Amino acid sequence: MEIGAGEPLSRRTALRNMGAAAALPLVDASDSSSRRTVEGKVALVTGSSRNLGRATVLELARQGADVVVNGRSNREAADAVVREAEALGVRAIALLADVGVEQQVNQMVEQALERFGRIDILINNAGFRGSSSIAEMSTDEWRAAAAVNFDGPFFCTRAVVPGMISNGYGRIITVSGLNSFHGRSNWSHVCASKMGAVGMTRALAVELGPYDITVNHVVPGAYVAHPDLARIPLGRVGLPQELANMYAFLSSEEASYITGQTFHVNGGEVRY
Length: 272
Prior knowledge:
Elements: H1 11-18, E1 42-45, H2 51-62, E2 66-71, H3 75-86, E3 92-96, H4 102-116, E4 121-124, H5 139-167, E5 170-175, H6 178-182, H7 188-208, E6 213-220, H8 240-250, E7 262-265
Parallel strand pairs: 1-2, 1-4, 2-3, 4-5, 5-6, 6-7
Helix pairs in contact: 2-3, 2-8, 4-5, 5-7
């Protein structure tokens, strides 16, 4: 592996040097021999017009899924991801919606179904982050976090489940973060709302299992920066591609006997 001008580096050394640089691929998107584990499926990834959501959309596209790119308001960014996905040989559409608003979610899902006829995979990636002490937190701040982090997965899941039940197949993934598990000062609204999605995941795994719909939860670690890399056994932050690989696996037929589980993808920073 060669990075820029200079001597080739081992993969391990390159990862340590590059940190979370998205420019360093773990797979070759042009490699036609790569396994296409979600061939013919349709995936909706919320909050996917940039960063980790974008990487997830592109990995699902690389593995054969048609994709729905969702952003709240940035049409240009969402359309750019659509073009990247289409370049991988799949169909793609950008649909803007605030996942915390029920009507917008329902409209988004209706438009996706009109275009593709089905939704097989839902990844509830959209998230709200904010900082406020409990003493100073307004009710609006509390509800803003709950709207995106808790109501959003509920609205999206409720909208896609009827079709999944009818088709006898589905993959649903909810997402939180490490702070939700070990706590963070001034993030009570974020931590509480994201942990709510864990409970929903476990309940839905039981409820939807008879229809061959799996429901799992993913907890990313550090993928942008970290104040103390020594706390991470692998010695670096993660690459977006590494998280996308987990989402793609849980979305595939290969994960057909995995449901109701929480997966931590954090380089060993927190061990369960």
